[in-house]
Design a protein that fits this description.
alpha/beta; 3-stranded mixed sheet; 9 strands; BTB domain-containing protein
Length: about 350
């Protein structure tokens, strides 16, 4: 393999150790700097060192605590340590240790690979700076959630896997499976985990709107305490008033029946037909597409129906009720995605 010397500052004559990358690039570095930056390097360089007679020892990815022995190569005065990482990853990682400029990360795979190595060497500062230097991280995950999840599995990055799984809720299952990913980078269990997460989130979100039980709303009293006289549905809209029993004694007669108890103030409301048409549309999206599909939060078609109605009450209160409901729904979906359904992966 051709031996090359890394670019400055990793070509210094002050170096007292050489890190040799997997692709044969020599990084001439100062032990003291690496010892300050990484507990793993500190432990490695404080052990008694010897010049072996056999082959160089590789620093294993599978066991980051394994201490490599040093060997001579070309210059017997400067020991060489073989590294499992590529020169690209080592260059970026070492720049976070040295007083030098580190370019921004522009590629998700490079971020994941370098972050995993920084974590392996317990370089907390490098982990923080990597995330800072990749302003496009969220967009990269959003653009290809299945790819991001696959990379997270490959490099054992739990936070990235969780973000990717949540972003996957913006796509249908068919769209997710159509992404070009290397399925060999994750186990069967990890592959199944994101599919089950997506399915269970869709079911829980669909249940929010398919049973006409809306007691999860933050303030059910904001939805139609004064009901219009236009076309209504035969279905009722169960809400939680979110107040004391004494404060709901003057409910209008259009509430049928009250079903109010001191323990949980809730009641059923009749709603206009356009309201339940809107709810049914959302339930259908949950069933056939995804929990965070854009059309779930698009109220413009229903607003047009309200505007064209002849009911002055709907025209006055309907738009605000619809927007309030959409905000509450989005909050509830986020809670399901982040706290309601676990992503069953082992890292």
């Amino acid at each position: 393999m051709e031996v090359r010397t890394a670019s400055p500052p990793f070509d210094s004559s002050l170096a007292d150790v050489i890190l040799r990358s997997a692709d044969g690039v020599h990084f001439h570095v100062v032990k003291a700097i690496l010892r300050l930056a990484s507990p793993i390097f500190n432990d490695m360089f404080t052990l008694p060192q010897r010049i072996p007679d056999a082959d160089d020892v590789e620093l294993s990815n599978a066991d980051p605590t394994k201490v490599p022995q040093e060997s001579t190569f070309q210059n017997p005065q400067i020991p060489i340590v073989d590294m499992a990482e590529t020169s690209y990853v080592l260059d970026r990682l070492l720049r976070y240790c040295y007083p030098t400029v580190c370019p921004r990360v522009t590629d998700l795979q490079a971020y994941c690979e370098t972050f995993a190595v920084a974590r392996k060497f317990e370089m907390e500062f490098a982990c923080q700076m990597l995330t800072r230097d990749f302003p496009g991280l969220d967009k990269a995950i959003s653009d290809g959630p299945m790819k991001a999840y696959t990379l997270a599995c490959k490099y054992r990055l739990g936070d990235v896997a969780s973000l990717a799984a949540k972003e996957a809720l913006r796509k249908s299952l068919d769209d997710l499976l159509a992404e070009d990913v290397d399925i060999d980078d994750m186990s069967t269990q990890e592959y199944d985990a994101i599919l089950q997460y997506h399915r269970k989130c869709r079911i829980m979100c669909r249940d929010l709107v398919s049973q006409d039980d809306f007691r999860w709303l933050q303030n059910g009293g904001a939805y139609g305490l004064s009901i219009c006289q236009c076309e209504t549905s035969s279905r009722s809209f169960r809400v939680r008033f979110g107040a004391t029993l004494a404060s709901v004694t003057a409910l209008p007669s259009t509430i049928t029946p009250p079903h109010i108890s001191a323990a949980a103030a809730s009641f059923n409301l009749r709603r206009p037909k356009w309201w339940f048409d809107h709810i049914d549309k959302i339930a259908d999206v949950f069933k056939h597409k995804s929990p965070l599909a854009p059309e779930i939060f698009d109220v413009s078609p229903t607003l047009k129906i309200i505007e064209s109605s002849r009911c002055p009450h709907c025209q006055k209160t309907g738009p605000e009720e619809l927007r309030t409901f959409t905000a509450d729904l989005q909050r509830e979906i986020n809670d399901i995605a982040t706290k309601g359904i676990p992503l069953n992966i082992a890292f």
